[in-house]
Amino acid sequence: MRSLLVLPLLVALVAGATLDFNHYWTAQEINEYIDELVRDFPTLATAVNVGTSTEGRPIRAVRVSKNNVANRPLVIVEAGLRAREWISPMSANYILHEIVEHYYEFENILDNVNFLVVPLVNPDGYEFSRSTNRLWLKSRSVNGNGCFGIDLNRNFGHLWNTVGGSTDPCSDSFVGTGAFSAPETAAMRDLIQSNSANLVLYLSIQSADQMVLYPFSHSATTNPSNVAELRNLANSVALTLMSQNGRIFTSGGAGLLQPAASGSSIDFVAGTVQPDLVYTLETGAGGNYGYDVPESQMAEILSETTYGFLTMAEYVANNK
Q1: What per-residue confidence (pLDDT) applies to 195?
Q2: b vs e for 230-244, b when ≥16 Cβ sit within 10 Å of the residue's Cβ?
Q3: C-alpha angle with apex 92: 87 to 98, nearest 5 degrees?
Q4: Whole-model pTM?
Q5: Hey, what domains does the chain have and what are their CATH numbers?
Q6: 3-state class of 56 per DSSP?
Q7: How confident is the model at residue 19 (pLDDT cuts 50, 70, 90)?
Q8: Is 282 a catalytic residue?
């Protein structure tokens, strides 16, 4: 595997002609990058309209398929569920930057695996976090009584609202009025289900607990039937992440290493579609709260996270 550049001032980190990875992109810039990729790499990248947010913003994805071969094993990467975790959508965009713009470095992976990358599931909350409240976590649905937003990682349908969320519309962990009541999670549900036939790996990129987690989020003791495989690959990914910059990463069951919570995206995928591999990758931390990574540290974490992703992608290419 080639070395990914991590020094933030290097010209080599420029993505295409117009955007760089030295600053956090707006939702509009993310869409511009998607447009640029599909324009410049038409035999590899295709734009997918996933859905529309509460406030009418597009939720978009990039399908990466060498020569548009449809029946390869599929990896779905989901990012930007929680508004304040800006490093998450940037990680997804950097993954696209690597596997599309530097496709020639990843022939074994692209010959054997297709990808569907959703860089920003929660564009409304992301933009509100950027413009108004840096700590904002939720979407921007109107809940009444001056309360806004749903914690999208508590709104997916598997065992919805059984543990770890809140029915208080003002709470940061508000689960919504029903499973998939948020248009953002409903759009992701439809995307996942429509691509379930070839789905082998689902990866949710979040920040910033420095963990590689596998289902289930709702329980410390309930595991998928192939937990040994999940554990072994999670350990390998954690070792890869730690080898980059010396940060400590932990791997294990999501409900064991974090407070138990139902309604997560990984629980929905593992509990209903049941592909072989389902993970959350919690990125490296920085700043005052962990998720508010300074732009000066961003390139390092983007490269680190991408190495973790590529470890998963290579496993799929060689084993699925």
Answers
A1: 98
A2: bbebbebbbebbbeb
A3: 120
A4: 0.95
A5: 27-318 (3.40.630.10)
A6: coil
A7: confident
A8: yes
